[in-house]
Amino acid sequence: MSALNPISHGGLSKPALSFNPITPLIFAALIASYFLFPNHLALATQILVLMIFALSYDLLQGHAGIVSLGHAVFLGLGAYGSAILARWGFTDPLFGLMAGASISALVALVLSPIVVRGSDFTRLLVTLGVASLIHEAANRMRDLTGGADGLADFEVAPLLGLFAFDFEGRTAFLYALIVFAFVYAALWRVTTSPFGLALRGIRENPRRMPAIGSPVARHLAVSYLLSGAIAGVGGALLAQTSRFASLDMLGFERSAEIVMVVTLGGTGHIAGVSIGAAAFGLVKDALSTVSPRYWQLGLGIVLMASVFLARGGIGGLIERFCRFGRRA
Question: Could you give the CA distance from residue 173 to residue 152 in angstroms, rounded to a whole number?
């Protein structure tokens, strides 16, 4: 997310039309990880998927102010959509990526009329209820989804017909990195556009925005659709790079996890959320390696510490760092 500066725009704070200075460091670190940790590219790819998923949810909560406990539905639908199409012979990864995004966007479009209305509490209940329904439906449709066993019997064709997905995970990592870069740039453009500014206005004061002619319901529906489509991209990418799609990708735990990731990164801050997702993935992997049984205890302590010690999450720390740099 671009840095917030004091540019006035209709009484709202307008994001500067430039990337946050942290952004080049994020991509430099990601590229460096390819060369420095060639034996951990599978983990790095999973973290890139988590970053894409976190950015999709941040558009919803951090910019539009819609809190959801069922966002993993779109990740799972993207994963299953890509995997099922691959089983049917449509193995091109880019086609699977677009199909995953389209399926998730279509479902988001259908759900948007009931999600964008009401208060935060009703949205929590509605999104949780919808997620439970879709999870159970996927579990029952065993012939299509594999049920509790998931789907693993599908192949993914070489990327662009040239780059096969190798055992070391190099193609998967570079593929995920390019997709993440596109998502990052697209969300930066969306959130710094007049539409993104309107979303922030709706988040800050949803009652005042209709008075200035802003179509609140339509803006929220569009943000919900975009968020679902991006989560679908992450899901398709996850299925293609792991060669697996399962019910846990649709589950409540995955939805709750992404709320924690965005809170850790700092809602409404693209760079902060990206770093938060990477930190969450690394800490989770390290703790589960140290203690496969009690890693969630350590993760809870880390998250509680981040709330008390880093106001505004990692994004808040970045903002304070940038303000200090401008004064220096």
Answer: 20
